[in-house]
Amino acid sequence: KAQIQRPAKEGSRAVEVKGGSSCEFVCLSLSSQRRTSRFDEPHRMSQRSGGLVCIQRSMHMLMGAALMYCMLQLFSDSPYGMHSRRTNSLQQADRFGSEAALSQESKPVQVLPQRRSPALSIGDAAEVDMQNCEPRSQGLHVSEVAFGILTSDRFVQTRLQSQRLTWLQQVRDVVFYSESDIASLPTVALRPAKREELVGSGAWKNFPALIDLHQRFPLHKWIYFSDDDTFVYLRNLLSRLGNYREDRDYYIGLYWTPRVDMEWTEVQIAYASGGAGYAISRHLLRRMSTIMSDCHEKYTRWAGDIRVGKCINDLGVQITPEVGFHHEPHDKYQWDMAGGGYPYGHLTNVASASITSPVSFHHLNVDQMHMYYRMQMADERGPHGELYRYDLGGLIFKEYICYSERLRYSFRVLFGVSVEVAPIDYRVEGPNWRKDFVDPVYTRRVDFEGDGSPIFHMAISKAPEIFNGDGCGLVDHADPFRNPPRKSAVLVIQCIPCRKVDDPKGKSDVGHICDVWKEDACTLKILLSVQCPRRQTVYAPMLDIGSSSDGLGRASHDLIHMGVPASCGKRASKQHKMYLHNDAASPAAFYISLRHGELLLLEPQIAISPARCFFTVEDSPLTSQGSFFRSVDGPRVLAIRCTCSMAVRPGHWQSDTADGVVANLTVTISTREFS
């Protein structure tokens, strides 16, 4: 860009070049005005030839571009998330460029305040978006991580069912390890060695399970191993693992040590807590595969996660502690904005989400698992039945504090969990917080701002009064989701900046409480401004449809992969996959399979063109009422035969089998759980 504005001599034409879009534009302007105008350039050489000036500037631009490219390539292999730094620098460059362009306009232009991007910086491994047909936007993808879950027969209908209805719905590859086969799950039955048959808690399962995961998923970048009473914020986990390289030795999790009165007398190492879950990189798992059988024989009598830690320690690899992995439920910790920056397990009971978002919680009952999930996700259906989702997991457990001069109370919001109050100004003295609202009810999208950004409601109620009630049953609430009605704090979450309620002269920004008011005797409203996640179109990551079966109980995914057209993963084509069936004598077979879990699929909608072609469904596992598919049942076949006719003369038709007429067949299969 050029901005050349010099006063010309008396009698000559003034030259004014502003905001040229290329060097060619600048050179043409210079050469066309050279005879009648004089430029007071600082370098003499620039006075000799406008073309030479252009060449010099072009060389400078090329050298600068080459240098920037080399620097980006140099830092692109860093495990510390250079993508985010590059994104920030590009955003700054855009901002500075736009400001320069505005300054070069001859007419005054009003500069509007910038809106923040609605995308979260934490946990932003995007799912498939049908609008751009891209399987991911940045970071680690869920298909690159294999999950192993330790379970038992007695927990199938409780703990395991809760995991399958919550965070495991977002997972592609998962295997459950138990003492016996579970008919409805992709289970691997493990048998203990004779000397460990009486050892409780299944400590002996870890090495056989890790060996099996390595054999099943040798190309996956990571494996994540946890218990069946663990809840995982999947996008936060993917974001955390995306900061490390899978071709290096990484053993990531919650820093833990053996108990001094038990295993510490025999093994004095630091390891990753198995309950909070740990991740092992592909490179390290390959190295472990050569010694895991020996470790399984040597290391007994210890907890399973200690055995794994000792085996990894034998390879000279230490644990990489990470913040966000928790060995207990959230109510076992003291949540504080200033604490929680130490990923060292039982060495501290202070936790915080101010530095980074939580990854996992352990020792949960089924109610806690469902509570975490419903407060994290805000789902909605589109006009054609498609499922949209806002994932608020990047904001969960963050702390927001304010003082309301109007109500003369201080308020402390622990996002997604509780609202606490104190009848003093927290800025003057340390308050004794009273936990008034501690029963999370729901999170949902209720409206849109004028600029299209969403507005959410998050309801957190008081603990119900069993005998006397709270008198709110007689209050007529407009919100049908608050049923039965109770005294509640309703967080009105917006995505646009505002001024903090106790700092009305401060800067308008996101990340604080904008207002607090009492709507009625049973409702406290808190307006909160945050950096919201973007809306995702959600598909079934476990669903594949192909034109063949691999003979191992799975369908190929050349047509539908992870619930979306397989062509979405190819840059060359953004259209639905075209499957050419050349054998007119046999029906076209479509194989439907699931990687794990169950899925209700509805009767397919079939359309065919041109009009002289017809179809017949010869075999279908789908009924008009819908059919449940289970992963353990293997691929199910949908067979459709096509026939076409051609006109030999007006009013007469004959069958067309040899002329090679192509019939375009479109099959649409719907599901109630996903798009």
Could you give a short description of this structure?
By secondary structure, the chain is an alpha+beta fold.
Describe this structure in words.
With 675 residues, this protein is an alpha+beta fold. Strands 5-4-3-6-11-8-12 form a 7-stranded mixed sheet. Strands 28, 29, 30, 31, 34, 36 and 37 form a 7-stranded antiparallel sheet that branches. A 5-stranded mixed sheet has the order 22-23-24-26-25, with helices on one face. α6 (206-216) packs antiparallel against α9 (292-298). The longest helix has 26 residues, at 50-75.
Which features characterize this protein?
675 residues; alpha+beta; seven-stranded mixed beta sheet; 38 strands
- Strand coverage percent: 25-35%
Shape: globular
What's the arrangement of strands in the largest beta sheet? 5-4-3-6-11-8-12
Distance between the termini: 46 Å
Which structural class matches the secondary elements? alpha+beta
Q: Provide the residue-averaged pLDDT.
A: 76
Q: What is the count of helical runs?
A: 11
Uncertain regions: pLDDT < 50 for 5+ in a row? 1-50, 74-137, 570-576
Please tell me how large the radius of gyration is: 31 Å
Query: Percent range for helical residues?
Result: 10-25%
Would you count the extended β strands for me? 38
Give the assembly state of these chains.
single chain
Largest sheet: 7 strands, mixed
Task: Describe the secondary-structure layout.
Blueprint: E1 3-6, E2 15-18, H1 23-32, H2 45-48, H3 50-75, H4 82-104, E3 145-150, H5 156-165, E4 173-178, E5 187-189, H6 206-216, E6 222-227, E7 231-232, H7 234-241, E8 251-253, E9 255-256, E10 271-272, E11 278-281, H8 282-288, H9 292-298, H10 304-314, E12 320-321, E13 334-335, E14 350-351, E15 360-361, H11 366-376, E16 377-381, E17 387-391, E18 399-404, E19 409-414, E20 418-422, E21 434-437, E22 439-448, E23 454-461, E24 488-494, E25 512-520, E26 523-529, E27 536-537, E28 543-546, E29 560-561, E30 564-565, E31 588-594, E32 598-601, E33 605-609, E34 613-619, E35 627-630, E36 636-649, E37 652-656, E38 664-668
Parallel strand pairs: 3-4, 3-6, 4-5, 8-12, 13-14, 24-26
Antiparallel strand pairs: 1-2, 6-11, 7-15, 8-11, 9-10, 16-17, 17-27, 18-19, 19-20, 20-21, 22-23, 23-24, 25-26, 28-29, 28-31, 29-30, 31-36, 32-35, 33-38, 34-36, 36-37
